[in-house]
Specification:
This protein is of the alpha/beta class and about 400 residues long. The chain has two domains: about 30-60 and about 295-390, Aspartate Aminotransferase, domain 1, CATH 3.90.1150.10; about 70-295, Aspartate Aminotransferase, domain 2 (3-Layer(aba) Sandwich). Helices cover about 40% and strands about 15% of the residues. It has 15 helices and twelve strands. The chain has helices spanning about 5-10, 15-25, 45-50, 70-75, 90-100, 115-125, 140-150, 165-175, 195-205, 220, 265-270, 280-295, 295-320, 340-350, 370-385, and strands at about 55, 110, 130-135, 150-155, 180-185, 210-215, 240-245, 260, 330-335, 350, 355, 365-370. Strands 2-8-7-6-5-3-4 form a seven-stranded mixed β-sheet, with helices on both faces. Helix 1 packs across helix 2 (about 15-25), helix 4 (about 70-75) packs antiparallel against helix 12 and helix 6 runs parallel beside helix 7. It is globular. It binds pyridoxal-5'-phosphate. Pyridoxal-5'-phosphate binds near residues 187, 214 and 216.
């Protein structure tokens, strides 16, 4: 795709030739390697577009119960401080989180969502031509920010059983690469490397490769045959970052806050150079600090979500769908029909899911685990849209 096509896409195809020529002179050519992020429609967009009154928003893996009541109460006290810039080092949050996780605050870096941290890491690390290894299908930003910096992305696919191809991954990581980035459990599938497999990958990784282990769904996964990379990395290896987020289990997606646990203080300091100084707003810092001091709400939401995930997976399998094993707060399966058409038909009924669009998976949908009511509505709408499966 040329830059002409990029500018055309960004502006709905309405650019004149001369406008496109001008932009071509200023835009990074690597932008042509990136597709627009598939964020989908907001609830308000869907409400205004379709004449429906009942909704199930199951597209972005949020926690429909939201944050702990204590977090909401704390946010009410914020108003008198809003004229002040936030703490550039997120100091109180770093202390609260370091106590919660039992790690040094010096290793913690915060991002406007963990997606910003992926961008910060790529800006700090990836140079043109660098080899970057990831899984496929994937959280698209793992690839996009690496490509934007000129990285050459190598994808490791899944087995037929929708599991990570461990053999191919072990082979790929043994050779030098600048970065190995993947989510465990992985998005969109929900499959994961168990502790033994993760240790194998870490042991096989070339020592000069930076490991970026995205644990966005960690809180849902720890009840399963799973462990954090934190428990697998050797003390002498400092080339790693673990990413976590407050957007999923902690119910704070709207405030945009995620964090990275860095292999060393020096790595965190280096990454901080590519971070905008006030990237975490006051509300997000406060909410996340209060959240980790009252984790009982998060834990009970998570347990309930896991129960509902198993129920939904079972109900889908009884309809004949091959649902991938998932340790996340979502399920992924093949509807054997163009996913965007199925998503559109569901949306007309008020159910919003994520149609997967990556090549090879464009008949798959990813459905977040919602409330009992939302999950029931999703099944009812799916049965109406794809009746041959009932
Ligand atoms: C694997 C993975 N990493 C990162 C993110 C980004 O999360 P955040 O809201 O913290 O930016 C997501 C969001 O869906 C995700 O699935």
């Amino acid at each position: 795709m040329s830059i002409h096509n990029i500018t055309s896409i960004r502006n709905g195809g309405a650019d004149s030739e001369s406008e496109m020529n001008q932009l071509d002179k200023v835009l990074r050519p690597t932008l042509s390697n990136i597709q627009p992020y598939n964020a989908g429609l907001s609830l308000n967009d869907v409400k205004s577009r379709y004449d429906v009154t009942e909704f199930a928003k199951l597209a972005s893996n949020e926690n429909p119960s939201g944050p702990a009541p204590k977090v909401l109460n704390a946010l009410k006290l914020l108003s008198s401080d809003l004229f002040l810039y936030p703490d550039a080092s997120s100091g109180e949050l770093a202390t609260a989180l370091s106590n919660y996780l039992g790690i040094s605050a010096d290793q913690l870096i915060f991002g406007n969502g963990s997606e910003e941290l992926i961008s910060i890491i790529c800006r700090s690390v990836v140079q043109p031509g660098d080899r970057v290894i990831t899984l496929y299908p994937s959280f698209p930003l793992h690839e996009d920010y690496a490509r934007l910096m000129g990285g050459s992305v190598e994808r490791i696919g899944l087995t037929k059983a929708l599991e990570i191809d461990l053999e191919a991954l072990l082979k790929a990581v043994a050779k030098p690469a600048k970065m190995l980035i993947f989510a465990n459990p992985m998005n969109p599938v929900g499959t994961w490397l168990n502790p033994r497999q993760l240790k194998q990958v870490i042991a096989a990784k070339h020592p000069d490769t930076l490991l970026v282990l995205d644990e966005a769904y960690y809180e849902y996964a720890i009840a399963g045959d799973y462990t954090s990379g934190q428990n697998c990395l050797a003390v002498e290896d400092q080339n790693w970052i673990i990413l976590r987020t407050f957007s999923k289990a902690w119910g704070l997606a709207g405030l945009r806050i995620g964090f990275g646990i860095c292999g060393s203080k020096a790595l965190r300091q280096a990454l901080d150079l590519s971070r905008t100084p006030f990237n975490i707003n006051r509300a997000a810092q406060m909410a996340a600090a209060v959240a980790v001091q009252h984790d009982d709400h998060m834990k009970s939401c998570t347990a309930e979500t896991i129960r509902r995930r198993e129920l939904l997976s079972h109900d889908l399998r009884t309809r004949g769908y091959e649902v991938a094993q998932s340790l996340g707060n979502f399920v992924f399966f093949d509807v054997n029909h163009p996913s965007t058409e199925v998503a559109e038909d569901l949306m007309k009924r008020g159910t919003i899911i994520k149609p997967w669009k990556q090549v090879g998976y464009d008949t798959f949908i990813r459905v977040s685990i919602g409330t009992n009511q939302e999950n029931t509505k999703f099944l009812k709408d799916l049965d109406a849209v794809l009746p041959h499966h009932v």
